[in-house]
Amino acid sequence: MARREIRSWLMDMDGVLVHEEEAIPGADRFLDALKEREIPFLVLTNNSIYTRRDLSARLRASGLEVPETSIWTSANATARFLEEQRPNGSAFTIGEAGLTTALHQAGYTLTERSPDYVVLGETRTYSFERITQAIRLIAGGARFIATNPDPTGPTPDGPLPATGSVAALISRATGVEPYYVGKPNPLMMRSALNAIDAHSETTAMIGDRMDTDVVSGLEAGLQTVLVLTGVATRETAERFPFRPSRIVDSVANLADEIQSGVPAAG
Question: CATH 3.90.420.10: does it fit domain 75-180?
């Protein structure tokens, strides 16, 4: 099958560009190749803890130069979604600066009294008191939104509970399921495409997970590239009922193709 011309790129961050805050070999060359050819790109992450500026600084500390305008988080996608659904609304939030900043920028008021939405994001310090408040507000009629469904997050000491696990607790207590905005919801892909004025037919998604990155790219109509520098292996990828457009060892392979002018997606 002939390869489509790829004019813009979306990519996951952890497992694609960095691993435990260390740059993956070749990631700098890949980003440099995109910049040199002025190819639009956006780094996507389900992590809602950090602002785009924070993440840009963290990537810089790993040796990767990514401007904050080229980063899109599940918090940004959630704020964009709520802004379109209910402009100038109100929300009770569980989360950190990444989420509260995005909601403020979208014109939202943060409140503990009769909010339109309870918005659950990720934090390293989940408060039982705020979880209880969220349960009571949802029981009272607030709509339940969660930034992403990831049940755990990685740390050097092992996994820790993340948004999906706390959402399950709240759902069990209220009988109300949240609407998840982040990956694998293709809504996050479409909001990212809109953010860089890109089209699905000429955009590729790079990820290291079949169950979030690849499936959301496929459902949004993008070409998909699975890299083997994170979670997935060729063997585990074969267990899924869907396939990526391509599997490559790392983004270093794509850097060589972009620099040589060879089409870089299947």
Answer: no
